[in-house]
Amino acid sequence: MEAQSTSPDVTPKNIFERFLASVAKATGSSAAFLLALATVIIWAITGPLFNFSETWQLVINTGTTIITFLMVFIIQKAQNKESLSVQLKLNELIAATKGASNRLVASENLSEEELAILYKHYCTMAEVTRQASDLRKSHSVEEAIKDASNKLKNEDV
């Protein structure tokens, strides 16, 4: 009996991923905005026909609430995927750059407090480096610190 192979493109997970990507792309388009605007305009125009009733108001309120609720999750999923993709690209650039520090690879996993400490640390290093060396000649934080340190040592002598 021959083994049946399942194409990765037809798995439920991939179908769902493709569906969400399509929805995110479509809802972020000009056409989606125009459709939403037209819906609101049509709703407003029909107000007098329905005597601005509670049901008339409930229709737009319910519709927008449901769409907003679903869009929050679609947007968050797209944002998470985009953020991870950017992090991977940055990690690749760090890994591929000679002399670059890899200490910040996966820094997105640090706490806000740890990120704030690192930020202050790098601001201080940038200021020291700016004062002591030519930033255009430095290719990494470590190299800039080394150059700044050497320059300061030479000035002290």
Task: Give a brief outline of the structure.
The protein has five helices and no strands. By secondary structure, it is mainly α. It is elongated.
Count of DSSP strands: 0
Order of helices and strands: HHHHH
- The dominant shape is elongated
Summarize the amount of helix as a percent range.
over 70%
Tell me the structural class.
Answer: mainly alpha
Q: Which runs of at least 5 residues are low in confidence (pLDDT < 50)?
A: none
Number of helices: 5
**Overall pLDDT metric:** 84
Largest sheet data: none
| Amino- and carboxy-terminal Cα gap | 83 Å
Estimated share of beta-strand residues? under 5%
Radius of gyration: 27 Å
Assembly form of the protein: single chain
